[in-house]
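@channel anyone free to eyeball this complex?
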Amino acid sequence: MLAQFIFALRTAGIPASITEYLTLLQGMKSGVADYSVDDFYHLSRATLVKDERLLDRFDRVFGEVFKGLEPPEGDPMQQLPEEWLRKLTEKLLSEEEKAAIEAAGGFDKLMELLKQRLAEQKGRHQGGSKWIGTGGTSPFGAHGYNPEGVRIGQEESRNRRAVKVWDKREFKDLDGDIEIGTRNMKLALRRLRRFARQGAATELDLPDTIRATANNAGTLDLKMVPERHNTVKVLLFLDIGGSMDDHIRVCAELFSACRAEFKHLEHYYFHNCPYERLWTNNRRRKESEVPTFEVLRKYGPDYKAIFVGDGAMSPYEIIQPGGSVEHWNEETGQVWLDRMTGHFRRSAWLNPMPEAAWPRYQSAQILHKLMEQRMFPLTLGGIDAMTRELSR
Amino acid sequence: MAGFKSTESYIASRDLEVAVNAAVALQRPLLVKGEPGTGKTVLAHEVAASLGHPLIEWHIKSTTKAQQGLYEYDAVSRLRDGQLGDERVHDIGNYIVRGKLWDAFEADRPQVLLIDEIDKADIEFPNDLLLELDRMQFFVYETRKTVVAKHRPVVIITSNNEKELPDAFLRRCFFHYIRFPDRETMEKIVQAHYPDIKQELAREALNVFFQVRGVTELKKKPATSELLDWLKLLMIEDLPPEVLRSSDPKTAIPPLYGALLKNEQDVHLFERLAFLSRRQQGR
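replying in thread with the prediction:
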């Protein structure tokens, strides 16, 4: 049962490992989650999920695997409401038996029997024909195979508590494939940061100083190392206008996330596909236009190029000279894109359209191919994959 | 098993209790994440108090190295002593400075060790502590001595998610994500901290607080600790609860907002919203 749960988690993309599985078993053995489904849920969550973005997915898998599992928790004596007994009489007993029970002392007798069994029973029980639990044939309990079985413990009040904890899906917002906000994006982009020592020597290098001093026969010889600086350089190319209008908000967020994260960040705009001219200010486009060659010359191959665009256009805009919707382009967009990706050692394309929609646009597919599969959706997961690709 | 439970001053949800108890029972580190101000660090204090163990705090900065938690070899003072001809120089043990982990390992009774904000450190930091936290022992090269934990400490690690933690490290931990408390829990938390707060004031303040949190464009949403600070201010100023009723457009910005809104863009946003609502009322 549990192994199946682990496999279901792994299929859903939660990287639960054998060690964690063993930890879970160990935790159950040590009695951290005694006889309570809720506690088992909490324990398995704390053991198997290590990333809040996966919590929602975990809830879904848990709900699926343990569907129909009822919690036989709490003090059973206090949780035996009158209705159970009423149901007993309605469903379990025939009219004659009812009459017989009435004669033999009525509900009290039955209540006593029930109490007696509950008292004898120590823990959670499953199967069997006598004890109260789940899945048995005793008239008392839940999910019994006894066709007339009284569904004790499936009263609404208990049921509500049982399913809801993981069915509430409170971690939905944290799922990496769904939400995208400035802060989350920053997180993903941080991966791009790479520390390297550059600049003036400002820190005392103790090991080197000791070595140098020893070599100097004990006379102090101070050695310095440069301080750490964030040296990641990013060049951002943003598609603007036309079909991109729907995605302005997400792109603005990406932009502000980038701004704060990198020391060297430059951005240029293009429309649909980059051609021989780019611009830096969309409002004063004509004045701020820069030849693309100029950009390639100005920024070294160590800049990481990120294109942001939905890639939704006519295929001719990419593969045909003069295909641009705005001007006559001598060379195709494909040539320009190849030039740019060839110049910058690391490049990627971010697409604000959901990944499932890409196959519908031929142009998006062409771009995906031109980028050598380095087109990523503009979701947290996509940015994560992109930054991993860019910082390899 | 004694177990960790909510206390008078700290309201823990059931899932947090289970996670803490699992970590204590299986002697593995507990990694706690969550929005800033939801009581991650306070949790360690509460766990220490409820288990009756002393708490050792290790606050991580961007410059902290894993080695500093174990021990440091003070080469500079040995060098100085050597040049001055001090006798101590012959025993290298005199220059080994113990770190927090060493303290926790060598203590005569179990300890609670808090490694606060582990994500502030270098990306390799957690990896450097893998073996130490797993086996609860480490080797001191200078003195050729192995330090083994007499009692495995309860290790609580907090993270603000600024860096991704390595998988190998995560495998060894229990994980808990502190969710932002719902209104009911929040009322309990307020009650726990300020038992003699006026009911009406608390209610109105919570209304305002959840309204502020409901504004989606906020850069930094106020969290539990901000709410508690704000309530304290309100109590000190002894403001009547009526002031908090937002039906009056002039007070659409909550009084003493400095405790709740922490950057000027958010304050501007609120002023704009207040202006809009005033104009609507004027119509």
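from a first look: Chain A has a mean pLDDT of 71.
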